[in-house]
Design brief:
Layout (H helix, E strand, L loop, with lengths): L2 H12 L3 H8 L3 H8 L10 H14 L3 H11 L9 H25 L10 E4 L4 H18 L4 E6 L3 H4 L9 H4 L6 E9 H6 L1 H11 L6 E8 L8 E5 L3 E7 L6 E6 L2 H15 L6 E4 L1 H6 L2 H6 L3 E6 L9 H12 L6 H15 L2 E7 H10 L1 E4 L2 E4 L2 H17 L3 E6 L13 E5 L4 E5 L6 E4 L2 H15 L6 E2 L2 H14 L5
Parallel strand pairs: 2-3, 3-4, 9-10, 10-13
Antiparallel strand pairs: 1-7, 2-5, 5-6, 6-7, 8-16, 9-14, 11-12, 13-17, 14-15, 15-16
Helix pairs in contact: 1-5, 1-6, 2-3, 4-6, 6-7, 11-19, 18-20
């Protein structure tokens, strides 16, 4: 389905006229008409905002009965009585999926020649075409089959990774419909990883998500020849080999969809990398404890955190015990986990820690009370927040082993919107926990990946003041929050 078709469908079932819709959205009616007739697409620069804007506009200007009709007629993957904000998210993803499908079709038509059942040679100047062919190939596999795992093997170097030939950020949207899943094996040449630690760890952090639709596993390969043999392979669909042009070193690409050749390359690559171990393992909350991963982490003496949601960080022992009783571990079957986490926290609260929290996470906590504790979302009332923030301010002032930095959402290392897991690192181990879920945990099993993640987190901690509040600035920021909370009108 094209973006224009999806938009026409939404306006039809919502009963909103295109002229009225254009007025509400603040666009010229002729512009909306061109969208609906597939003559033009929204600009790529602001399309994420426009999808949500359209969804918001439609739901705001229609009643609950119309919302139900929209969900049923379009076939959205959401309950008909879901809250408006949930329907907005699903509807915006529906529009985004249609947009990507149409855009990839347009881009692919720019290719001179065909890939089907033969080979196609493209120069390095055709970067957007390469991405479009990859995306459209994934889409075709997802749309033409049900309950299938789309397997992708990517051995490209960082220079190509950064050109986003495989659009890792779009994989979740591609797999949002139906029962299909996407599994990517990203093979990293060890030397290339060492040269580009920040770029690789940015991608690793952004892919540690609690998704049953998309999984990305990362592997190290020590063989130096891997840098000469770069492939992107989509099983049963497409194989791309990256070639270096003599003298200039520019990348050229050899593409094939010839079934026998793609299958042969898949088996060769699968055999070559079949014995490699992923850099991290996935655990449920209880599995993380059963495998002694939490014990291992709590035995360290120095930690670095990167948090997209506020965590407890520090609290007195009496209040900590009360929280367990109040929020979670009141049943006997949960007391083991509660005791373990309580002891782990007591140890980590008194160890050397450098904590970096995104500014949005701090603000959400100060004004909304949202905080994570041991994989559970808690909501502190105003008095609890004031008490906790005062403890934090005192801790920052008096404990030289505890530092707290507040990171701007947009920064050179990794943006707030890219991270869905809280990352906890020590010199010997790293683990990450997905927030707002029941606790998908990632535990690093490769010491090179542990070292690289620690280096990445330290680089974030050393960002200039433009992106990071430190020391006295953090104390002043938290104290301002305390003062606002203590006002009578709050």
């Amino acid at each position: 389905m094209t973006f224009g078709e999806a938009l026409r469908q939404i306006l039809l079932y919502s009963g909103i006229k295109s002229g009225h819709f254009a007025e509400m959205l603040g666009y010229d009616p002729s512009y909306i008409s061109r969208w609906m007739n597939n003559e033009k697409l929204p600009s790529e620069k602001n399309n994420v905002d426009i999808f949500r804007e359209i969804a918001n506009c439609v739901l705001t200007n229609s009643d609950k009965r119309t919302h139900k009709v929209l969900v049923e007629k379009i076939g959205l993957s959401v309950a008909t009585d879901a809250p408006d904000e949930v329907i907005v998210e699903v509807l915006s993803e529906y529009l985004r999926s249609a947009y990507l499908s149409q855009k990839n079709s347009i881009d692919r038509k720019r290719v001179v020649g065909k890939v089907d059942n033969n080979c196609l040679y493209l120069r390095h100047t055709d970067k957007s075409v390469i991405k479009s062919i990859i995306v459209s190939s994934i889409f075709e596999l997802l749309q033409n089959s049900r309950d299938q795992v789309v397997e992708i093997i990517d051995t490209t170097l960082c220079e190509n990774l950064m050109k986003e030939y495989i659009p890792y950020d779009e994989l979740l949207y591609m797999a949002s419909e139906g029962g299909n899943r996407i599994h990517v094996r990203k093979i990293m040449a060890s030397d290339d990883y060492n040269r580009n630690i920040d770029d690789y760890n940015r991608l690793i952090c952004s892919m540690m998500r609690n998704s049953d639709k998309v999984s990305v596993d990362f592997y190290f390969e020590d063989d130096a020849d891997i840098e000469k043999e770069q492939f992107i392979l989509i099983r049963d669909k497409l194989c791309i080999r990256v070639l270096k042009e003599p003298f200039t070193g520019n990348d050229h690409f050899l593409l094939t969809q010839e079934e026998a050749l793609v299958d042969e390359y898949y088996h060769v690559l699968n055999a070559a990398f079949g014995d490699l171990k992923p850099i991290y393992l996935r655990y449920s909350r209880s599995g993380f404890i059963d495998a002694n991963q939490l014990y291992n982490f709590m035995m360290q003496i120095e930690y670095h955190y990167l948090l997209p949601v506020m965590h407890l960080l520090f609290i007195d022992q009496e209040s900590c015990s009360q929280l367990w009783e109040r929020y979670k571990f009141t049943e006997s079957e949960n007391r083991r986990d509660g005791t373990i986490n309580l002891n782990a926290d007591y140890n980590m609260f008194n160890s050397k820690r450098s904590v970096t929290v995104y500014k949005t996470a701090i603000l959400d906590y100060i004004f909304g009370g949202t905080i994570m504790y041991a994989g559970t979302v808690l909501f502190f009332n105003k008095e609890e927040r004031i008490r906790h923030l005062k403890l934090l301010v005192e801790k920052i002032k008096t404990d030289s082993g505890f530092t707290l930095q507040i990171l701007e959402d947009i920064n050179p290392k990794i943006g707030y919107s890219e991270l869905e897991s809280s990352v906890f690192a020590s010199d010997r181990t790293v683990h990450a926990t997905c927030y707002y879920t029941s606790g998908m945990n990632f535990s690093f099993s490769d010491i090179r990946a542990v070292s690289g993640m620690n280096q990445f987190l330290r680089a974030i901690e050393n960002l200039p003041d433009t992106y990071l509040l430190k020391d006295r600035q953090v104390v002043d920021f938290l104290q301002t929050g305390i003062n606002i909370l203590q006002r009578p009108d709050k």
